[in-house]
Amino acid sequence: MRKPSEVTEDEYKEFYKSITKDFEEPLTHVHFTAEGEVTFKAILYVPKSLSSDAFQNYGKTDENIKLYVRRVFITDDFQDMLPKYLSFIREKLVRKVLDMLKKMAPEDYDKFWKEYSTNLKLGVMEDPSNRNRLAKLLRFHSSNDSEKQTNLAGYVERMKEKQDAIFYIAGTSRTELEASPFVERLLKKGYEVLYLTEPVDEYCIQAMPEFESKKFQNVAKEGLKIDDGEKSKEAFEAMEKTFEPLTNWLKDAGLKDKIEKAVVSQRLTSSPSALVASSYGWSGNMERIMKSQAYAKARDPTQEFYANQKKTFEINPRHPVIKELLKRVEADKEDPIAASTAQLLFETATLRSGFSLQDQVGFASRIENILRKSLDLSEEAQVEEEPEIIEDPETAVDENQDTGEEQTTLEEQSEQPQEEENVEVEEQHNEL
C-alpha cells in the first residue's frame, strides 16, 4: 500500500467506489499505519449515507472490514481470521475512527451526524471502553438554541454556577417537550434543558452515569433540585406546611390507591399538577416506547412491574384550582366536588406528563359532564332517540314498478342489435 502522501484525493474516491460499488463519494476517510508488535496499514471510509438495511444487519460481524492484498480481495469474514487475542487491532481501528470523527470539519460532521447519530448512541450503550470518547461526539436539541443542536461539553460550559446536574427530558418532538409541565420553572429560571426526541436517546443517556463529573437528571423524574437560595428554601418549606392538609388528603382519600404520595412541586409554574416517576421508574416517554415494541410479551412481569408503579403527584401551590381545592378540603374532607376535582386533576396530569390513562372511557364521561355544566345543561338530559322512519307501502310499489319498466326498456334496447345481426347473417346465407 502506498504512503498517504503519494495518494491523491481522487484516487481515494476512485478506490472507495471500486470496492463498495457506491455511486456517491465517501464523506471522509483516514489512511494510517499502525505499528507495534503487529504492523498493518489501513484505509477507513465513512459512506455519505447510511444504507437502507443498516439496522437489519446490525450486530453481524461480516462485511464490516474487507482485506485486500495488492488490490486483490481476500476476505471479509474476520470471525476466525482475527482471534480474540488480536483484539487490539480492532481497538486500534475504533480509536482511529473516533479520532477521525473528532477532527472532522463542523459542516461535514453535521452531515455525518444526520446519517449516523443512532449508531453513535448505540455505541455509548454497547461500548463501555469508548463511552467517554463517544459521549463527546453526541449532539442533542436544547432550549439554548431553537435551530442548532449542542454537544455535552457546550452544555456544561453554559451551566449555572450552582447547577450540579445536566437537565434533560425525553419525548416525541421538541414542540411537545417545550410545552411540558416539567420544564416550566427550569426555563423560567434560565436553566438549559436538553430535548431528547429520538427513541434511542433516553436509553443512551441512561447508559452514561455522568459527563465531566456532572450527573444527568431527567426532569420528569424525582430528584430534581433547584438551588434558589436560603430565603426561597424557607418560603418553600412554609408553603409545604400550608398545603399539608391537601397533600395528606390526596394521598389518603382523594387519590388513594392511585399515587405513591402528593407533594408541593418545585418544577411547576403554570400547570396545576404533574405526575412524576420515581428515580428508577419509567418516564412517560419510556412507558410509550416499551408498550409500542412489537416483540413485547403480552404479560411481561418486568413490564407490568414498571407500568403499574405508583407515581408522585405534584401540585402547584400558586395555581387557583389548587388553592380552592385546599379551602374545600379544609372545610369538608367529604366534599364531593373536591373528590371529583382531584380525580380530574390526576387524569389531566397523567396526560400532561406523557403517561397513558387506564380509564379513558371514564375520563371522557367526566369531560362530557363539564361540557354540560358549561352549557347550562342538566345532567339528566338524555340523548334524543332516533325516530323510526316507516316507508309508505304505495310509494314503495310505485318505485318498484318504475324500476321494472326501466329494466324492461334496457333489456329491449340490448336485444335490438342482436336481432339486426341475425338478419344480416340470414341474408348472407341466402346469397350464398
UniProtKB/TrEMBL annotation:
Name the domain of life this protein comes from: Eukaryota
UniProt keyword terms in alphabetical order: ATP-binding, Chaperone, Endoplasmic reticulum, Glycoprotein, Nucleotide-binding
Q: Name one GO molecular function term.
A: ATP-dependent protein folding chaperone
Region Disordered, residue ranges: 378-432
Subcellular location as annotated:
Endoplasmic reticulum lumen
Give the GO cellular component terms, alphabetically. endoplasmic reticulum lumen
Checking Pfam families in the record gives: HSP90 (PF00183)
This chain belongs to the protein called Uncharacterized protein
Taxonomic lineage from the root: Eukaryota, Metazoa, Ecdysozoa, Nematoda, Chromadorea
